Amino acid sequence: MPVNERALRRRAVVAAVALVLTGLLGVRAPHAHAAAAEVAEVQLPAPTGPYPVGTTTRHLVDTSRTDPWHPGRRAHREVMVSLWYPAAREGWRAGGPTAPYMQPRAAGHFGRGTPLGAVDWSAVRTHARPDAPVARGARVRPVLLYSPGLGDPRTWNTSLVEDLASRGYVVVTVDHTYDASEVALPGGRLATSVLPALAARRDVDPAAVLRKAMRARVDDLRFVLDRLGDRRAARLPHALAAAMDLRHVGALGHSAGGFTAVQALYEDRRVDAAVDLDGTLAFPGPGGLSAVARAGVHRPLLLMGTDAADSGEYDRQPSWLALWRHSHGAWKGNATLTGAEHGAYTDATVVLPQLARQGTVPWSAVREAVGTVRPERAVGVTRAYVAAFFDRFLRGGGALPHFPELRER
């Protein structure tokens, strides 16, 4: 979370101005304010739903695809996912420590060279217990697929994901390998992002890189959905596989992850509704509108923008306006988080104020990354509004709530 508009989008991992200017990138790390003398401490806000949360991680291999970022290796595409789900209260209480925010190998790489590197991310605890027993009951447990921003790991919205799981959803967070800053793979391997190296090359077309990334991302989501439908292939505990209602599936994501979610809604009939958290739906250059922006979608859609210069209401963004005009026959909504910047829909809203209080980053970095919106309100409003959207369209719930921080269209 940088200290000016362009730096806002330039996370340490994807340090390419060409990619930053597309507006697809998420927000992670501000420039250093001062060297941290001690390890900074970070805590996540507690989930607000009625269920405790369990989590489990799986390594999935798509034998139908070679990895698009390393085609010469002829290696199959590997994807790491975490499933977050409502857990049985008694079994949760009897469990061991809650899961770490990141596995040690990934944690040691995340935020390297930035103030986020001052945090021991493997020591940060979530509120979910690994492999906790699944909550019983006949209530529908829809499945939500979460895609992070370009260059971000699947962990960089754990606060929102845990909250959705506590409200009764099974949320599957997806690492887009070689796009994400780092992915810890089996066998002690750490797959790091190829994007910084590509961005440094003058002979590489940024639009082509982004198109390739988006194709890989959407294919990843569709592959994960395939695996979830095949209990044996996914190697999930029986109770968790039985708890998932794959007749009711939603997709959501931040920045490029929002683009991924909406494109998946367009391409895959199994996805019933999608939320785009401040993600542009276009590529740089002439003819850059995405297929989904040109064609529209015909299932429920929520666009959540910010007060950043290239965000806000749908008619301020050409790609969102095109999508809006071409989408018919289903509910569509647009809400703008007043006073927010691009990072307000990520764990930046949770992490940066804590780092500022410890002197690791200046408060100006918090304002420029998250905005002037009160961080705790940004977290609470986003959690409640996203959950209400999926409640309405995956569970037959009622109208979405109104918040003074949201401008609705």
Automatic annotation (TrEMBL):
The keyword Zinc-finger does not apply. Keywords: Hydrolase, Lipid degradation, Lipid metabolism, Signal. This is Lipase. Residues 1-34 form the signal peptide. Coiled coil: none annotated. It holds the Pfam family PAF-AH_p_II. It comes from Streptomyces luteosporeus.
